[in-house]
Amino acid sequence: MPAAQPETEQLLELAGAGNSSARSRLLERHRERLRNLIAMRLDKRIAARLDPSDVVQESLAEADRRLAEFLDKRPMPFYLWLRELTLQRLVDLRRWHVTTQKRSVRREEARLAFLSDASVRELAARVVDPNSGPGSRLERKQAVQRVQYALLELSEADREVLVLRHLEQLSVKDIATVLKITPGAVKLRHVRALQRLRGLFSAEEMP
User: What is the CB neighbour count within 10 angstroms for residue 203?
Assistant: First the structure.
């Protein structure tokens, strides 16, 4: 039986004590998750120009430079800190590429209020309950397509809480940290977002 991998907190303690191996393992252990995050959030207008792996590598290099700062302040769980650095790097790259196309993009417009087409399809598939939905594979595919359209009609706030919960699969506590609201508010927002989505989905079914 293989030995258990050290937990993040254990690696943080070792890295803080100057253990370079722990530092490297700490930064590497979330690489694939961050890569999936970037692929999920990559604006299709610049997808051909950016490799998610390159964005992650640059973000991890920034995290390495700022690790002492994180260890000193511990502003949030380590993965959420890496996630924030990575998304900010993506925001900056998006602004650079879009503005080089002579488009005006304000920072607040670059808050990643978009998903890749594949991510929208994946989110739709995850919120369609296989146990209560249509029986046949074709009917389920059609249901997912209708939910896809409904997702695009949701507000950014509603869609984001669904993305965080069902695509990024963050805990309620972590979502609360990301959105800067209470766990109770996360649960309420999530329930209401699903209700609005179901309402839009039902409207799609009407002749």
Answer: 12
pLDDT at 113 exceeding the cut of 60: no
| Structural domain contains residue 2 | no
Contact 54, 11 (CB under 8 A): no
Confidence of residue 112 (pLDDT cuts 50, 70, 90): very low
Percent of the chain whose predicted confidence (pLDDT) is above 90:
50
Number of domains the chain contains: 2
Question: CA 102 → CA 50, 95, 96, 105, 106, distances in Å?
Answer: 18, 11, 10, 9, 13
Mean pLDDT of 181-191: 97
> Both 129 and 157 in a single domain?
yes
Residue 154 exposed, middle or buried by CB count within 10 Å (0-12, 13-18, 19+): middle
By the 8 A CB rule, do 159 and 197 touch?
no
Tell me the whole-structure pTM to 2 decimals. 0.80
Q: Is there a single domain that holds both residue 12 and residue 106? A: yes
Q: Burial code of 39-52, b = ≥16 C-beta within 10 A, e = fewer?
A: bbbbbeebeeebeb
